[in-house]
Amino acid sequence: MRISDLRHRITFQRKTTIRDPEGNVLETWVDVVTVWAAVEPMSIRWKEFLQAAAINAERYTLFRIRYRIGITPDMRISYGGQQYNIVHVVDIAGRHQELHIIAKDVVAGG
């Protein structure tokens, strides 16, 4: 991965629970870390892979970042005013240098 590919700022978020002033428990998303990333709409080849893995391949995006510990599918990505649920995190070649993150667009209310 070339450094020039990492030109988009993305923020990883994790779901947490809080109590409002009335004592009600609410779920909310909190920012965990913001990093530089390459952002690519999923190609036909990737869509075929997702379909073979029994994942509905519609409106998926590939995010590529430098390797980072702690990025998991229970997180989501905030990028360009849109949220993306993480579907799969891949440590490329197991070398701890680069992560490929497949994420699905979140519809309103997600």
Q: Termini separation (Å)?
A: 31 Å
Number of individual domains: 1
Structural class: mainly beta
Note the beta-strand portion. over 45%
- Overall average pLDDT: 86
Strand order of the largest sheet: 1-2-3-6-5-4
- CATH hierarchy, class: Mainly Beta
How much helical structure, as a percent, in the residues? under 10%
Give me the CATH superfamily. Answer: Bacteriophage SPP1 head-tail adaptor protein
Instruction: Please name the CATH architecture.
Output: Beta Barrel
* Tally of contiguous helical segments: 1
Please tally the β strands and state the result.
6
Low-confidence stretches: none
* General shape: globular
InterPro entries: Phage_SPP1_head-tail_adaptor, SSP1_head-tail_sf
Pfam families: Phage_HCP
Protein name: SPP1 family predicted phage head-tail adaptor
Structural description of this entry:
With 110 residues, the chain is mostly beta strands. The chain has one domain: Thrombin, subunit H, CATH 2.40.10. The protein is built from 1 helix and 6 strands, in the order ββαββββ. The protein has a 6-stranded antiparallel barrel with strand order 1-2-3-6-5-4. It is globular, with a radius of gyration of 15 Å. The termini are far apart. The relative contact order is 0.22. The mean pLDDT is 86.
